[in-house]
Amino acid sequence: MSEPIVSYKDVHKSFGDVQVLKGIDLDIQPAEKVAVIGPSGSGKTTIIRMLMTLEQPTSGSIIVDGKNLWHMEKDGDLVPANEKHLRQVRGDIGMVFQHFNLFPHMTILENCMTAPIHVQKKDKESAKKDSIEMLEKVGLGDKLDDYPAMLSGGQKQRVAMARALVMHPKIMLFDEVTSALDPELVGEVLEVIRDIANEGEMAMVLVTHEMEFARDIADRILFLDNGVIAEEGPPMDVLENSTNERLQSFLHRFRT
Ligand SMILES: Nc1ncnc2c1ncn2[C@@H]1O[C@H](COP(=O)(O)OP(=O)(O)OP(=O)(O)O)[C@@H](O)[C@H]1O
Ligand SMILES: [Mg+2]
């Protein structure tokens, strides 16, 4: 096996007195597709928000492509990372949120161009070219000058994906990106994710309640329960053959 692109090492996270993650150990291989399932409040979002540097672990470490995310070396010691270090390491990571988080006052082309220009310091023309290419890839090549308010939820979510992809991350994080959508719009968004997954090279972590989808595209499924990884393995093993009772009762809710 190659070096993992992401390693969580005994990661704990508390909010005040509430222990939300209780020792996460997880290696993700480059190009691996990992689906995270589990009950509400089990810590799924918190796991990926720490990787996106939106939450700081209480203890433990997260290594991204060989670099310690939340710590850096100074005079031979490990010290808390500063903003510059976080920004550098975060450059490998892209995230798509449940509620799109598009900039309402920018066209969808501008939404995609802004981070390549301001974060990656790309020149405007190449940022524009890349952004148009990504928007075409998600099926929105004819909407470049529309504003987010003019789009359907599914289209907004595809813009959010193009906006993350245009940064060429090594790891893409998806947090229940279809759960705010009307049912008839879910399919088009899952299709785009499937296309991205099939291209292969990027690692992906998907928090999802779409069990069929997880079974299809994931190399591995993690069942998070009460802040620990209670079960993990290939989709068939986790979804069909696990004897974990909490997992079975969780999955039962998705069967009709
Ligand atoms: N910023 C915060 N401040 C305080 N508590 C928080 C914060 N973020 C999350 N929590 C708590 O941490 C726990 C885990 O939250 P998290 O959002 O990671 O769960 P989840 O598995 O993503 O749930 P869901 O399926 O509902 O999205 C919850 O009890 C939540 O209330
Ligand atoms: Mg969540």
TrEMBL record:
Any GO molecular function: ATP binding
Membrane topology: Peripheral membrane protein
UniProt cross-references to CDD domains, sorted A to Z: ABC_HisP_GlnQ
Gene3D superfamilies linked: P-loop containing nucleotide triphosphate hydrolases
Domain of life: Bacteria
Alphabetically ordered keywords of this record: Amino-acid transport, ATP-binding, Cell membrane, Membrane, Nucleotide-binding, Transport
Primary location: membrane
Location relative to the cell: Cell membrane
Ranges where the ABC transporter domain occurs: 6-251
InterPro entries documented for this protein: AAA+_ATPase (IPR003593), ABC_ATPase_HisP-typ (IPR030679), ABC_transporter-like_ATP-bd (IPR003439), ABC_transporter-like_CS (IPR017871), Ectoine_EhuA (IPR014343), MetN_ABC_transporter-like (IPR050086), P-loop_NTPase (IPR027417)
Family: Belongs to the ABC transporter superfamily.
Protein name: Amino acid ABC transporter ATP-binding protein, PAAT family
High-level lineage: Bacteria, Bacillati, Bacillota, Bacilli, Bacillales
